[in-house]
Every structure is written in structure tokens, then in C-alpha cells.
Amino acid sequence: MSLPVLDVSKYIQGSPSEKMQFNRELLRGFQAHGFVKLKNHGIERRYIDILMQWCQRFFQLEPSIKASISNKKGPKPQRGYSGVGGENFKRFALDGTGEDYVDVKEHFDQGPRNDTSFPNQWPPETASNNLIGFRSFMEAYFDSMFTLAHQLLSSLEVALELVSGTLTSRCSQNHNELRLNHYPPTTIEEIRNGRVRRTGAHTDYGVLTLLFQDRNGGLEVQDRSVPAPEVKFVPVTADDPYELVVNVADTLQRWTNDIVPAGLHQVTIPAGRRHEAVGRLHDRFSVAYFMKSNREESVGSLSDFVSEERSAKYESISAIDYHKKKHTVLYT
Fold first, then answer.
1. Spatial CA neighbour of 201 closest among 232, 247, 237
2. What is the pLDDT of residues 99-145, one digit of tens each?
3. Element (DSSP H or E) covering residue 330
């Protein structure tokens, strides 16, 4: 699928009419697909290259080093390393297949620096493991994405004709998360017979997700032209690793009372190899920044989107309790 590709420079530096056009196209893309791509987003190409290099270096660590900072499973934000099979998206049963599969993916998760409620776990940095500078870079990248995510949310506020700060004020405390993903080599046969997925069908929990991916492909998004209950996925091109893929997550869907639906997606066989019956898939790497609500903020339907004709579809529950509820299903 060719997702809409929006030029962020038109929002940052453009004329009032160009900014308004960006706002409308962002909302239109999210409502049509749950996803858009961004170019000229302000993240330098060299910086993205270094980001992906750090991602690869982390997963090249010895298993014992990664295991030393293992995420402690439970209904809480993830911190540290999770190995293959650590997540069970099959429990959400969103792909319509009913298949019992394993997600063949490992990942590293971090939150904001100095988070005393859910502290980060960092690997040792030594010359021998080629990881000196990892923490400082990842913390700096985490902070840099905060500004861009808020710009996008501000753009949506205008497109939705909301009072400024209606959405952004609910994400002001930087309770966001960052994830490095590695999809180890697997075979087309294993995916086709239903035993494994690279990532099973799911929506994200937060507000927006901002993703950089390599060129190996495999990301698929729901084709919303297909009526329920059938679920069909279409591939997203991955020919430009400097484009930023952005998707709507659950909290934004809940706040807007389904006006802006979350993007259902999965990772599977790349589009260029879907015709093959057998074969080996190469490593795939991606980095996802999850913009999330302030933890004590309600993620119920906002009054701006509720009327006599459109009743509230989502109950009031704090963001952290909603997060814990989801993780209870995902990690047990």
C-alpha cells in the first residue's frame, strides 16, 4: 500500500494555507488508514543511520548480557530486554485466523530518563561489546522525538477544531516509551503454516507511534475498505528508511470516540517475497517511539467528541491502569 507521504516542513515552515493543508491531510490519512508517512521531519539522515546502527549493535550482544537486563514481566511498562516469544499478540485474536503462533521478535524498551516509578535498565558499556555511548544516544533520541510527536498532535488539534492543548496537555509529562526491535531470521514456510509471526496483528496502546524501519519490509496495515468481520492486511512499502511511519494508537481512538481509529497492523512476509512458498527471511530492524498519555490522565472518551447523537464509547480509566490491563493479557 502506498500510504500518504506528508511533508512536515510545510507544517513547520510553511504558509498558513500550507499548514492547514498539512493538518487536514494528516487527519484524512489517519482516518483512512490509521497510518501516514512523513518526510522532511527534521531528523537528519546521518542521525537515523546511527540510530539503526545502535539498534543492530544492541542485539549483537551476548545473550547473557541481554538477559542481565531482562524485562520483569507483569502489568507495567516494559523496561530492558525481552526475548523471542516475550509478547503474545495471539491473545488479542485480531487477525481473524484463530491460529496459535509465536511472535519471532526480540526487543529493548526504555522510558524517560530518571523515571523512578519504572526505572530503565541499561546494558554495560565496554569497548569489548562495542556499546560505549549507547545510553547517552538513546536518551538524546528519546528526548528529540518528544517535540516532533507534540507537533503532530498539535496539528491534529487544529484539524479536529479543538481548543489548543486539548490533546497535547494530556501528554505533557513525557511518559513515553522507546523500543528497539529485532526480527531474527525465520522461514517463509514457518509463517505460512501459522506457527510463527514476526509480529501478530495488534494496535498500539498509546496516542501515536513514530517508527523508523530498515528496507527489509514486512509491515502490513489493515485494509479498511474490506467490511467487517473480515480482516485483510496490505503491505506497506519500505524502500526509504528515512521516511517516518506514524500510526494512531488506542488512546487517541478512545479520546476521539472512534473519530480517529487506531491502526491495526502486523509484521510478516515482505511484499516482494509474498509469491514465494519457501525461503529464508533476513534480519529486520526497526525503532518505535510510543507517545503516551500522562499516566494518571483518563483515556475515556473526551466530551468534545460526545453528543446526543454520539454517546461515549469508552469508560474513564487512567492511562496507567489501561496500560496494565493490556499487559495483563499480553504477558500472561
1. 232
2. 667 888 999 999 999 999 999 999 999 999 999 999 999 999 999 99
3. helix 319-330
User: Cell 529485532 sits at which residue?
Assistant: 182
Cell of residue 109, nine digits: 524498551
Cα separation, 318 vs 298, whole angstroms: 4
Over residues 310-327, the pLDDT tens digits come to 999 999 999 999 998 887
CB neighbour burial string for 84-99, b if at least 16 within 10 angstroms, e if fewer: bebbbbbeeebbeeee
Instruction: Give the DSSP per-residue string, 259-317.
Output: SS----EEE-S-GGGTT-SS-EEPPEEEEEEEE---TTSB-SPPGGG--SSS---S---
Beta bridge partners of 39: 7
Distance CA 316, CA 313 (A): 10
Instruction: With 0.85 as the threshold, say if the pTM is over it.
Output: yes
Q: Which amino acid is at 136?
A: S
DSSP character for 227? P
